[in-house]
Amino acid sequence: MRNIKPVKLKLKKAFLVVDVQNDFCPGGALPVTDGDRVVPVLNKYIRFFAKSNLPIFASRDWHPKKTRHFKKFGGSWPVHCVQNTEGAQFHKDLKLPKEAIILSKGMDPIGDSYSAFQAMDSNGVHLENLLKIFGVEELYIGGLATDYCVKFSTVDALKHGFKVILLVDSIKGVNVKPRDSELAIEEMLSRGAKKITLKDLIKR
Fold first, then answer.
1. Strand positions, DSSP E, the chain
2. How far is residue 23's CA from residue 60's CA, in Å, rounded to a whole number?
3. Within its chain, how far is the Cα of 27 from the centroid?
4. Is 106 helix (H, G, I), strand (E, B) or coil?
5. Number of folded domains in the chain?
6. Residue 26 pLDDT more than 90?
7. 184 falls in which pLDDT band (50, 70, 90)?
8. In this model, does residue 114 exceed pLDDT 50?
9. What angle do CA 16, 199, 169 make, to 5 degrees?
10. Pairing relation of β-strands 56-61 and 101-105?
11. Any idea what the CATH number is for the domain that residue 31 is in?
């Protein structure tokens, strides 16, 4: 865990990896179809940002055993990503550096908390404040799932005044309805996000 200095830095760009956890990958409690296929691509982005000495954040669902988020307590979803369970761990092949800042969300037993902007680090500091500390203006986002946590995180980032670059080759969706991911991407772009792929980033 990186120690945050109170002095504001000026790093401009940061990478947010959204919820690449076992329960959202094949074999998990709430699997995204081919969700694990984003991992190798995300690792390439991680190496790119790490080599550039830019901050890397990784959000995770970190639910209590009893929460209204789950069907059995009145919510919409099967039990998943319960704190300190195997399903809540990051995918084993995701190569997060030791300096990555882990953000936990979904701890409130009466809320859903899809957005990483509702997440906090181990010191209780929310993502928006962390980005301000680092002087981040532009947030690159990839992970799971396109039509929920990626979308809500992107929309919140834009609402808070950050530029968002959506890494479209490193996202996959739940698709409760067949076009959910497609529509989510359209919404994010219509709100001001830009989309790129790893090849585009390397060219930059």
1. 12-18, 56-61, 101-105, 136-144, 163-172, 194-196
2. 11
3. 20
4. coil
5. 1
6. yes
7. very high
8. yes
9. 50
10. parallel
11. 3.40.50.850
pLDDT over 90 percentage in the chain: 92
Which residues are the active-site residues? 19, 105, 149
Kindly state the DSSP code that residue 47 receives in the 8-state scheme.
Answer: H
What residue numbers bound the domain in which 72 lies? Answer: 12-203
Report whether 165 contacts 193 (CB < 8 A): yes
Would the pTM count as exceeding 0.85? yes
Taking the C-alpha atoms of residue 70 and residue 54, their distance in angstroms, rounded to an integer, is 36
| CA dist., res. 204 & res. 196, Å (int) | 11
**What letter does residue 101 receive in the DSSP assignment?**
E
Residue located via tokens 């001001």: 192
Domain annotation covers residue 77: yes
Beta strands in 121-197 (DSSP E): 136-144, 163-172, 194-196
CA distance 15 to 160: 16
The backbone torsions φ and ψ at residue 22, rounded to the nearest 5 degrees and listed phi first, read -55, -40
Tally of CB atoms within 10 A around 50? 17
Cα distance between residue 69 and residue 114, in whole Å? 10
Cα diameter, the chain: 48
The number of beta carbons lying within 10 Å of the beta carbon of residue 110 is 10
In a domain, 7, yes or no: no
User: To which residue do tokens 């005044």 refer?
Assistant: 161
